[in-house]
Amino acid sequence: MQAGHIPLALAIATYDWNPKTVVFCLGMHFLPNADSLVVRAGFAKPEFHCTVTHSILFALVVSGIVALFSPHYAIFALVAILAHYAADIGSTVGLPLLWPFSKRKFTLAFFKDTGYWGWQMLIGYYRQPMAWVLEGAVLAFFAYRLYVVSA
């Protein structure tokens, strides 16, 4: 999933709908992709993307650190990061959810991996019909959450 990450993070934030939670959920949701910045900076090979930062252990460690400051936001951190994994698991690249206990990568293979950066990635992703189905579902869920919050 590409652009759908944004409404997915925002949908999570609607459970405590305020600017601080919105910014926090967006940051936590995109945190696993910080590994792509490490690759772009030349500190790691492209294969590093979707590894350690896409594991359940990473989500637990981050939410544990957040819990030291705010148990309330620790739950948002965990849900936002796990939602990121749910959005990514449809890609053929696979996610090492059980790292470091297993190197097995899990995938639902709904859409072909088209890379992690740039226009080629976006164009390749949005040429696949399942991309539109998944992103449409996320937008519908976000619209529903906005309706619930405003009611």
What does this entry look like structurally?
There is one protein chain. The protein is mainly alpha-helical. It has seven helices and no strands. It has helices at residues 5-13, 19-30, 34-40, 56-67, 71-88, 119-126, 129-150. The mean pLDDT is 91.
Features:
151 residues; 58% helix; globular
What overall form do the CA principal axes indicate? globular
**Count of beta strands:** 0
β-strand percent reads under 5%
How confident is the prediction overall: mean pLDDT? 91
Distance between the termini: 29 Å
**Major beta sheet summary:** none
Classification by helices and strands: mainly alpha
Q: Helical stretch count?
A: 7
Order of helices and strands: HHHHHHH
In short:
The chain has helices at 5-13, 19-30, 34-40, 56-67, 71-88, 119-126, 129-150.
Helices and strands in order, then pairings?
Blueprint lengths: L4 H9 L5 H12 L3 H7 L15 H12 L3 H18 L30 H8 L2 H22 L1
Helix pairs in contact: 1-2, 1-5, 1-7, 2-5, 4-5
